[in-house]
Amino acid sequence: MADKPLPTITDENRPFWEATRHGELRLQRCRQCDRYRYPIAASCPRCLSLDAEWAAVSGRGRVFSYVVFHQVYHQAFKDDVPYNVVLVRLDEGPFMFSNVVGVGNEQLRCDMPVTVVFERVTDEVTLPRFRPEDNR
Amino acid sequence: MGGATGLVLLQLASFAVASGAANAVACVFGDAARTGGSRFSAAAGWGDSWGIWGMFSAAANSALTARRHMHEFGTTSLQLAEVAVACRRHASLNEAASMREPITVEDHQASRMVVDPLRLLDCCLISDGGVAFIVTSLERARALRRRPVAVLGVGQANSPETIGNPAWWYVPHQETAAQAAYRMAGVAPRDIHVAQLYDNFTISVIVWLEHAGFCKRGEGGAFVEGGRIRLGGALPVNTAGGNLSESYMQGWLHIVEGVRQLRGDCGARQVPGAELCLVTGRGMTLNCAAAAVLARG
């Protein structure tokens, strides 16, 4: 059976995956216009500046939208269905795909507050996932 | 450009003819997705694959749109069902359609979940087939045996971004494409008699109704109620059955059906007095959009 897809670590995305390995979410922030960005990219999609730094973010955000997979599109997820995929909007602005853990799929809601958790998958890769955050 | 390709080629061919670069252009499409076993299951991504989180398939992108649309505007699965039922009803009147057995809202609700909130009957077919249309000058077309159909306006709009754009889920460039087509044609949404709206999934029709100006943002779900998009309704949509029930020719048959309606060739599914048809297409990871206004020549 095919394994689940993993990120290919490159010079461009290494700071992101190094950070998650150490339990931290870091995104690129444009030094020209101060915007955080994701997906990882060489230039700022707003001002096109190439000048960016890797900066820690809060790891907090809200579920912008979510879906629950019943269809098995990839054999490595055969035993996972039904599983959720969420589009999280981080408090700093960028959107990320991820999964919400620690709660039933039927309890997912748009705009529910979530906070990042880190799940080690291999020695090299730790995936950022999210859990519901109460009291927000 | 995925499901926008047919309309984009219509645009290029029209410009080529208008500029004198070509006398006639054949636009041709063929696919064997069904025989080839394609499931449109690939993971999108930018840098890192979304498959890392299990985010696969074209269906999932539209499911995200549907969920957010439901959250912001109160759109329901029953309204999605109205789209599927209308398309199937129209396909039942089309001898060339793949899926002709009528369905009900209850059938839709009983169909299995694929990517919640989209059920099996929210999803288009996977088909084999071919489509061609020929673009030439109106003068030349008027000298031919068949009634010509005029391309009054065409527009396309594309976004290079996906989740980097906060509005990506709602595909706002669709509105840009539709407005460009209307502007070139010199017509407004209220002038359109019949529409062929890209329906890879039911939610796409609802969003197109909003972007093409038939209702306001968020009102697409309510618009499809009460048979409004069925034959006999205020705006018949996808009168041949669409990608959902006729055949998934990635929007190319929407152009063909627009031509047939305007020629008056549609028999039992003919929209009486159809003189203006809007055709829309959308492709890739919600990135590419195109629209055309066609007129009885």
How would you portray this structure in words?
With 136 residues, chain A is mainly β. Chain A has one domain. Helices cover 6% and strands 36% of the residues of chain A. Chain A is built from one helix and eight strands. A five-stranded antiparallel sheet of chain A has the order 6-5-4-7-8. With 297 residues, chain B is an alpha+beta fold. Chain B has a single domain, classed as Peroxisomal Thiolase, Chain A, domain 1. In chain B, the strands form four sheets. Chain B has a four-stranded mixed sheet. Chain B has a two-stranded antiparallel ribbon with strand order 1-6. In chain B, a hairpin with a 4-residue loop joins strand 9 and strand 10. In chain B, helix 3 packs across helix 7.
Which helices and strands appear, and what pairs or packs with what?
The complex is a heterodimer of chains A (136) and B (297).
Chain A: H1 14-21, E1 26-30, E2 36-37, E3 52-56, E4 60-69, E5 83-90, E6 95-98, E7 113-120, E8 126-132
Antiparallel strand pairs in A: 1-2, 1-3, 4-5, 4-7, 5-6, 7-8
Chain B: H1 5-19, E1 24-32, E2 45-46, E3 48-49, H2 58-73, H3 77-92, H4 105-110, E4 113-116, E5 118-119, E6 128-136, H5 138-142, E7 149-158, H6 173-185, E8 194-196, H7 202-211, H8 220-223, H9 242-245, H10 252-263, E9 276-283, E10 288-296
Parallel strand pairs in B: 8-9
Antiparallel strand pairs in B: 1-6, 2-3, 4-5, 7-10, 9-10
Helix pairs in contact in B: 3-7
Task: Give a short synopsis of this structure.
The complex is a heterodimer of chains A (136) and B (297). With 136 residues, chain A is mainly beta.
